[in-house]
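#struct-help
A.M.: can someone run this one for me? Single chain, 161 residues.
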Amino acid sequence: MRLPLVIAALGLALAACGDAPLPPPPDQPIAFSHKLHAGDNEIGCTMCHAYAEHAPVAGIPSVGRCRGCHRFVSKDKPEIQKVLAAFDEGKPIQWNRVHRLPDHVYFAHERHVQAGLACAECHGDVKSMDVARQVSPLTMGWCVDCHRGRGAETGCVVCHK
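D.P.: on it. Structure tokens below:
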């Protein structure tokens, strides 16, 4: 009775190792350009994604963090006015997630950043992206290949809850 479950689980795991098409970039409530911010203006990743170096999640910047610059910079542009209005109304911006791992996978940004992995290794050349999009498959096979190439742990419990 348990053997079919084990076979099904292995089949799903192997399927996760294959090359699936990457998802299209999601629509966002505000047109945000990583190219403008990270590329042209050379704002580092952790200036906005402040938790990447010391927490499991990199974090999405609060409206207050955006307002910190935009109360002075480009405040008359329509997209920036949306940010400022959200701040004034006390409402968060409902960004749509670009990268998502399955619920059974544990991923910690801090461990990867502290190990010297550059953001671009997984997220691509964000500095050239007007619209953030997933560029790496983020599959089990892709991650295991990276771990092996760097001599990092590959045991099941390293990533699986």
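A.M.: thanks! The mean pLDDT is 89.
D.P.: also worth noting: Residues 56 and 108 are 4 Å apart (CA to CA).
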